Amino acid sequence: MSRSPLLINALKVDEPKRGRWARIALRASTACDATILYATMHDERTEPLSGHFYLRGSAIARLRYETYQVVLFIPDEAVEVRLFALGPQADAMRLGRLTFHSLSRAQASAHLILTSPRQALRRWRQGDWFRSSTARGRIRQFLGVLAFEAQIPRYNYATWLTLFDHWSAEDFSSQSTAPTIAYLVFSDEQASEALEATLQSLEAQWSGPAYAVVAPTTDCTLRHFVEEMTADYIGILQAGEVLPPHATRLAAEQLDYLDYPELAIVDEDKISADGVRHTPMFKPEPNHTMMLSGMLSRGLWLVQRSMLLREAPVSTKWAEVVRLTVWLARQRTGVRFFGRRIPFILTHRRSDTEAAPSTLLAELIEQHLQGGGPRIAPVATWPLTFQMREPRSEERITVIIPSTLRQPHSLSCIRAVLDGTDYPLFDIHVAVMQPRPLDAQQRANSKALERYPNVTVALLEAPHFNFSAANNRVAACTFGEYILLLNDDVVPIRRDWLRWLACFLQDPQTGIVGARLLYPDNRVQHGGVIMGLSGLCDHAHRYLPAAEPGYMFRAIIAQELSAVTAACMLVRRQVYMELGGLDERYPSAFNDVDFALRVGKAGYSVVYAPQAELHHHELQTYGSHYAGERQLYEAEEVQRMQKTWAERCAADPFHNPNFSLTYRSEWNLAFPPRISIDRKWHRSGT
User: Fold this and answer.
1) Beta strands in 76-154 (DSSP E)
2) What CA–CA distance (Å, rounded) separates 253 from 258?
3) Same domain flag for 157 and 229
4) Cβ–Cβ < 8 Å for 176, 252
5) Are residues 140 and 185 in the same domain?
6) For 205-209, 411-415, 488-492, 633-637, which range has the lowest pLDDT when averaged over its residues?
7) pLDDT at position 65, please?
8) What is the DSSP code (8-state) at residue 151?
9) What is the number of other CB atoms lying within 10 angstroms of the CB of residue 54?
10) 462 within some domain
11) Angle, nearest 10°, between helix axes 135-150 and 117-126?
12) How far apart are CA 215 and CA 197, in angstroms?
């Protein structure tokens, strides 16, 4: 199976080589253009310490060998470097000499800059790698980003398919206990090329599944068709959605591995008239908020037969209507974790694939939202967009803004929040945490703010500033039903931003709602948080122009995520108090991510609501998270996060395992995907 990498060598890292840069070089025969060599680093527990470092080849055209090499930084905790080969002919490569040389920082810098001079210049000018307060830390981070970026494989989707999407019967167990699958194909026409293509793909399935066509002239109810089928699962397809021959076998194996979920969605791509596959749609785990947009309602769905009998509509010619109806009905019962994602491409979408009218989908979502959930109303676009609905009630919001209250910029930002917000019931509590009384500048700024009747400035005496403690202390002595954690360096773009956040928090299953934050130049600063990105966690869509929708529209549609930033985070007070607020062991960074993960673990949703937009003047008032005395916390906080949330960092359910976790490459293809396959299907995608 070409998805499985071949371990070709493991190098022990001696003490003198740790904490230094190194060059690893391997001489090997050229087996195939699509063969990839990469290195990973591991600690004494064999846990990986980083992403993949790809070895670049320097071939001599008339000779049958290449020298592959990579320059990387070896952290202190690394005890082993492993080399892997990946590709259809990886096992045919003849390996030659392997060398491992330590490098000085100057040598590593020269190599990386000479290898990718344009990237180096662009990164240095942008400074978007900057996260440390020390010159040494800044240089190390710059080189680390460059080391990753210089070696990211520039392969296209065709190469990815060659490596990771070729299947044979030998890839599946001959004694499988997997469930059986039959199919319902919905069509707007009695006969069409799109319908014929779908039926031909079903006939070509290795397992020979049963299927039926639901078309306009069909007299039978949908329930009748389902009753006639005896399979465990019913696959829902629209005319024009075609399956690869292995789809049924692979879907059945995955349903068995996932312990028979009530339903499962699959990844898909598009296919041209000449058979070229393109535009893959690698999906997150299905979630209620994103489902409301309709973005997850296309492609093959696998639904338990009993669930379909219980929840399906009486009749329709649209697969999307069936899928959404079943999902939303189950969601209304209060059950949250009934749907799963199968992270393999099992549907190809033709250009003539039929699609349900957006007006019909909007009517379906409107009917669902009348029964509860976020206070929004759908608009018939693709994907569906939303307008605010009048709230059932307006909860008072306590806004907490930790601040030094010294910088002129912080004063103007807080004033912009006060003057640029149309929510009627909010109070702002500015928390200044320091060991001494307010100085003259702070007193002047405090006096200017307290001219507003809904502003309070509180001095919280403490030896050191602790962002978590400041928020917790103010939250404990205030009474708003909702708590808004807000930085002192954000400015509203639209006056209704806080009403949008409150609309989504009206859903009782939601614990946190986060906003979309833009840099002053209108590029995205925060579009949600992806766990595992950049080694631990990072913002999605960073630097994407505000007008662009992002991958699968995910920069501009509301959805559930693992975490959002506390630069603007609306929390239900009950949830905040139930979980003890922010963890004060994170005085500077990661407190918001840790809190959001705990909220999700407690069973609540964490929602990213891009309709709420603010400008974020990042680090302009508070400064770097680890400047000055805060530098002492950096290593400790990173290690605590890595240990506490190791599983979520390895497998964020809202980030498909077929995507990269390399800095600023979160929507690029992963080489290889974070899915390894053997006889028992080991997954890291949920």
Assistant:
1) 80-86, 95-103
2) 9
3) no
4) yes
5) no
6) 633-637
7) 64
8) T
9) 21
10) yes
11) 140
12) 15
Q: What's the token pair of residue 562?
A: 């693992």
- Helix then strand count (H, E) for the chain reads 19, 32
Q: What DSSP designation does 17 have?
A: G
Average of pLDDT values for 559-578? 98
CATH number of the domain within which 606 lies? 3.90.550.60
Report the pLDDT value the prediction gives residue 132, as an integer from 0 to 100. 46
- Per-residue pLDDT at 631: 57
My answer on whether 496 and 642 are in the same domain is yes
Find the mean pLDDT for residues 334-340: 90
CA distance 89 to 2: 9
Owning domain of residue 51 = 6-162
Same domain (yes/no): 617, 570: yes
660 neighbors 666 (Cβ within 8 angstroms): yes
681, part of any domain: no
Q: Which helix (H) or strand (E) holds 646?
A: helix 646-650
Q: Are residues 330 and 461 in the same domain?
A: no
336 with 195, same domain: the answer is yes
Q: Are 642 and 536 in contact (CB under 8 A)?
A: yes
Residues in the chain: 686
- Are 132 and 208 in a shared domain? no
What's the domain count of the chain?
Answer: 3
pLDDT at 30: 60
637 SS3 class:
helix
Give the number of other Cβ atoms within 10 Å of residue 154's Cβ.
Answer: 7
Cβ distance 297 to 361 under 8 Å? yes
CA-nearest of 291, 289, 302 to 344 is: 302
Predicted local distance difference test score (pLDDT) of residue 421: 97
Contact, 663 vs 538, CB < 8 A? yes
Q: In b/e form, how buried is each residue of 58-90, taking b as 16+ CB within 10 angstroms?
A: eeeeeeeebbbbbbbbbeebbbebbbbbbbeeb
**Do 105 and 204 belong to one domain?**
no
What's the CATH number where 137 sits?
2.60.120
- For residues 278 and 270, the answer to whether their CB atoms sit within 8 Å is yes
Out of 328, 356, 384, a domain closes at 356
pLDDT one-digit tens code per residue, 31-66: 555 678 888 899 888 877 777 788 877 544 334 567
Q: 684 near 532, Cβ under 8 Å?
A: no
Both tokens of residue 541?
């869509």
Q: What is the mean pLDDT of the chain?
A: 88
The secondary structure of 530-587 as a DSSP string is EETGGGSEEETTTT-BTT---GGGTTTS-EE-SB--TTEEEEEHHHHHHTTSS-TT-S
pTM score of the predicted model: 0.89
**At 657, which amino acid appears?**
P
3-state secondary structure of 136: helix
Count the helix, strand and coil residues of the chain and give each as a percent rounded to the nearest 5.
30, 25, 45
Return the CATH number at 290: 3.90.550.10
pLDDT value at 314 more than 90: no
In angstroms, rounded to a whole number, what is the distance separating the alpha carbons of residues 166 and 88?
Answer: 9
For residue 380, being part of any structural domain is answered with: no
Task: Judge contact between 568 and 685, C-beta under 8 A.
Answer: no
In a domain, residue 375? The reply is no
3-state secondary structure 318-376: CHHHHHHHHHHHHHCCCCCCCEEEEEEEEEEEECCCCCCCHHHHHHHHHHHHCCCCCCE
Which of 127, 162, 197 is where one domain is finished? 162
